[in-house]
Structures are given as structure tokens and as C-alpha cells.
Amino acid sequence: MLDGKKVRLREYRREDLEKARNMVNNVLKYTMPGIPYPLRVEDEIKWYEGFNAFSDNYSFAIELKESNEYIGGCGVNKVDWKNSVCELGIFLGMSYWNKGYGTEAMELLVDFVFKEMNINKIKLHVYSFNQRAIRSYEKLGFKKEGVLREELFRDGKYWDVIVMGLLRREWK
Hints:
Layout lengths: L1 E2 L3 E4 L6 H10 L1 H4 L9 H9 L8 E7 L5 E11 L4 E8 L8 H15 L5 E7 L3 H9 L3 E12 L2 E11 L5
Parallel strand pairs: 5-6
Antiparallel strand pairs: 1-2, 2-3, 3-4, 4-5, 6-8, 7-8
């Protein structure tokens, strides 16, 4: 477990799955690049049962420390060990937005990546309409590295995908 002031990152549990599926389905437009199609119960179970302690993907449940309530998830999605680069992702249930939980969870995750995985660079992709997330990433030190112009189609409009990165030497 990784403990912050307000949140904790821990392993996923089977009892998290239904709440996780509902949360993900509500925030698909912010997290998935393809056509946002709702996850089924079977999809969530298959994802959970695919966890492997020896893989290069690390998924954490995010919970509130004071109540142990599951509020979202984050993780390391892709690792390039040769070049010491990885990609991160996060989602929170909408009722937990704008409370600092996501920023703190990402701070714990970034610390884990640099200290425990010995990675040199972290990158992520964020949609240009998601200004809340961009501000959070910038607060943690991420820099805009590039823009994939009109890469995403959502709500009848084309949006840019912003590539952001953070180097170990820039962290804290």
C-alpha cells in the first residue's frame, strides 16, 4: 500500500469491481480513445482475473484513508524497460473530482515509479478538453511535450491529444 494524507493506493479487490465498472462507464469520454462503449460486468471480471504479479502493468485501487471507500483507480499501463519510460493513467468517480484526491493519487504513483521501478521518464496522454486533469498534471511537474492535433472525436467535435512527460530529475 502507498499512503498519502487523504488517499491510499492499494491492490484491487473483487468487491471493487462493480463500483469500478460504474465509475469507468461514467468517465469513458475522458479516459478511452476509442468509441466510448460501456464496459460489461464480464469485461471487468476478465480484466481483474488477468492481473499477474509478474507483469509490467501495475494497477492500484484508490481509496479514501478515513473511510476505506473505493474512489477510483490508477496505474502503470506500459513499461519500456530498455529506455526507462512508462505510461500512467488514472480515473476517479465524478463525485470525487475537485477535492485533490486525483492529484495526491498521481503523486503517490509517480513516487512509486521513480523510487521503486527506477524509471527515468513518465508520460501520459490527456485530451485538450480535460483542463482539470491538465492543471493537476502540471501541478505535479509534468510538461507538455507535444500535441496530436485533432486526434480525438468526442461530442461531435475534434479535439487535440496532449502528450505530457515528467523526468526523474524534475521530480520534487
